[in-house]
Every structure is written in structure tokens, then in C-alpha cells.
Write a structure and sequence with these properties.
6 helices, mainly alpha
Length: about 140
């Protein structure tokens, strides 16, 4: 795996927790919204923290799509779970949320599993695709 691919995975791992954290911070300022009132959702986007969170989540989505274009889902998703560590740290020290020992243990277990998944190949080797209804090749020779 080259540096560009590591940077894409780093983008996936950083953009998601950063965007989620900014969205959480902004929505705590906005207050309760309801799907029954779409205008409330549109007004929530006007909050700069919510807007910045959406931009970061768009960055995550672009990085995620890029990673999936060259690697299997079973490689990309676990590799991106390192963002859970960052999310836990942001929640605890920036958003001042209580993160219990049980949650830290869960984050550690998920993150430790990344080592197992990323030690294998990033892309499954596939055999050439066979068409199901291919016409048989003529083998009879005309006389």
C-alpha cells in the first residue's frame, strides 16, 4: 500500500469523528428538531458548527468512496474504525462527555481488531468474470 492510500484511510478516520463531533456540538446549541418539521432541520444547518460538521462528513464520504474504489469493504471499514479512538478522545476532552470505562474498553477492542483485518490483502483477487449465457464457441470445421 502506498502513501496516497494511507492518506485516504487517514482522511476516512479523521473526517468522520471530526464531522460527528462538530455536528453534535452544533445540535446541542440548536436544540430539539423533528422530522415532522423540515424547516427546523434547514434552520439547524445555519448553525456554523452544524455546517462545518456537514462539510467534514462530506470529506469523509469522498475519502470513503475513494478507498472503496481500490479496496474491499471488509478492509476499509475496519481500518476506518481507528476513528473511534479519536471520537472517544474528542467526546471526553472537547465535548466534556462522560465516557465510561466500558466504552473505552469497547473502543480498545474494536481498534485492536484492526490489526487482524489490515494484515491481510486490501483487495480480493477475483477470477475473470464469466457470462452466464455465453454462446458456445463453434468447434466444428467445415469440409
Amino acid at each position: 500500500m502506498n502513501l496516497r492510500k494511507y492518506l485516504v484511510l487517514l482522511g476516512v478516520s479523521i473526517f468522520a469523528p471530526t464531522g460527528d463531533s462538530l455536528l453534535s456540538y452544533g445540535m446541542k446549541q440548536v436544540g430539539n428538531v423533528s422530522l415532522r418539521h423540515p424547516s427546523e432541520l434547514l434552520l439547524a444547518i445555519a448553525n456554523p458548527w452544524v455546517g462545518l460538521g456537514i462539510v467534514c462528513l462530506l470529506g469523509f464520504f469522498a475519502s470513503y468512496m475513494t478507498a472503496l474504489s481500490w479496496a474491499d469493504l471488509t478492509f476499509v471499514l475496519p481500518a476506518s474504525s481507528l476513528g473511534y479512538v479519536l471520537l472517544g478522545l474528542i467526546a471526553r476532552f472537547v465535548l466534556h462527555e462522560h465516557v465510561s470505562v466500558t466504552r473505552w474498553l469497547g473502543i480498545a477492542l474494536v481498534s485492536s481488531g484492526v490489526g487482524f483485518v489490515t494484515s491481510g490483502p486490501e483487495l480480493t483477487k477475483r477470477l475473470p468474470h464469466r457470462r452466464k449465457h455465453a454462446q458456445p464457441v463453434a468447434t466444428e470445421v467445415s469440409r
